[in-house]
Amino acid sequence: MKNLNFILVILAISIIGFSACKKKTNEVTPPTKHEMLVEKTWYNVPNMGRGNHFFGADGTILIISPTWSGTYVWGPNDSMTVITSTGATVNWWFKSITETTMEYWPTNEAPQNIYKFTTVKP
After folding, report:
1. What was the pLDDT predicted at 21?
2. What was the pLDDT predicted at 11?
3. Which residues partner with 81 through β-bridges?
4. What DSSP character marks residue 87?
5. How far, in Å, are 27, 79, 109, 114, 116 from residue 105 at the CA level?
6. Is-contact 95 31, C-beta < 8 A?
7. Which of 35, 57, 86, 111 has the highest CB neighbour number within 10 Å of its CB?
8. d(CA 7, CA 47)
9. For the chain, where are the alpha helices, taking DSSP H only?
10. pLDDT at position 27
């Protein structure tokens, strides 16, 4: 009987321990930087002539004023290769991406050329 009680205590402790370690299914995983960037209009603020950007979840990019389109592919270290519809290829390095702001540097330009954007229409 003593052994049975001991086994029941160990079993109860094990069940409690395993259930505490189990990940809760209602926990929300925060979006990645890439997820925060897509399916939004990004306004160049202050206006530095970069136009409004829209990154589609399907890998397409549309820029308005000046207007051009193309595709993008994520690279390492928050970089992106952009291929315009005319065939030109440029690389952008994202300094920061949040839900409402982003900054990037076109690596073919001087390092101080950091372009800033917001999802809030100016």
Report:
1. 54
2. 47
3. 73, 91
4. S
5. 34, 9, 8, 5, 9
6. no
7. 35
8. 71
9. 2-21, 33-37
10. 85
67 is written with which tokens? 């207007």
Spans in the chain with pLDDT lower than 50: 8-9, 11
Contact 69, 60 (CB under 8 A): yes
Residue 26's pLDDT is: 80
pTM: 0.75
CA atoms of 122 and 118, how far apart (whole Å):
9
Element at 97 (helix H, strand E)? strand 89-97
H helices present in 22-111, as ranges: 33-37
CA–CA gap between residue 97 and residue 67 (Å, rounded)? 23
Residue 41 CA to residue 55 CA, distance in Å, equals 8
Give the pLDDT score at 5.
53
Question: What single letter denotes the amino acid at residue 65?
Answer: S
Radius of gyration of the chain (CA): 24
d(CA 93, CA 7): 59
